[in-house]
Amino acid sequence: MSRFSYVVALTVVSAGVIGSPLAGQGIPRLEVELEGGPVWQSRNDVQIPNDEMGTRFSLVDPLGRGPWPAGRLYVTWNFNARHAIRVLFAPLSVSGTGAVNGPIDFAQETFPGGAGIRGTYKFNSYRLTYRYRFLAREKIRLWFGATAKIRDAKIQLEQGNLTARDTDVGFVPLLHLAADWQLRSRTHLLFDLDGLAGGPGRAFDVALKLGYDLDNHWQLSAGYRTLEGGADVSSVFAFAWLHYGVISLRFRP
Asked: Hey, which of 22, 62, 95, 227 has its CA 20 to 30 A from 116?
């Protein structure tokens, strides 16, 4: 998380230097949003490899359901009134020790059942989004776009002298939808979605938050985020469902 804190500090300083509004349009050229809060898991099913050589098991057993701390950083560059580029940095890594029922064949190792298995689940997400504001009315704004996601994932089991892990770095294309509905003069209902389903897998990252404008530069929001998805291919079966309680602070120079 120290690297994450460094990125946050550098981004906020940069926003103050280059974030002048678009001339005559009242739109900030740069927006920085820091989001944090607890995360729980209700599902985390794994089988590696995804055949008779692997055992399907739940990482909820060794890890528990949470909560764990989580955070993410958004940086949005509005290069004109309707077009924008958004970057996301969202690290996530959790570990825990617990019991599993029966032996587990995982990543070419066999782990006896019972207590004392330590699990690690890492799912870092880096995304680049292009979005177009196709509706801009007095009370509501809507965006549509596309997201290029890089996932940096790792699942690891440890028991005594046994250690096995599976890592994956890959590209995932997603669709993007967002909405900002102004309920009152300073209160907003905020919706954000990156997601796509089809083929051997799916990925959905959805947030619904209530935002309040503290002044012309700062907005505070709180709400719920869910992240669900995974893949079912010959080498791996992995599906997780995560739930976040989030608080966000957005800065618009």
From this structure: 227
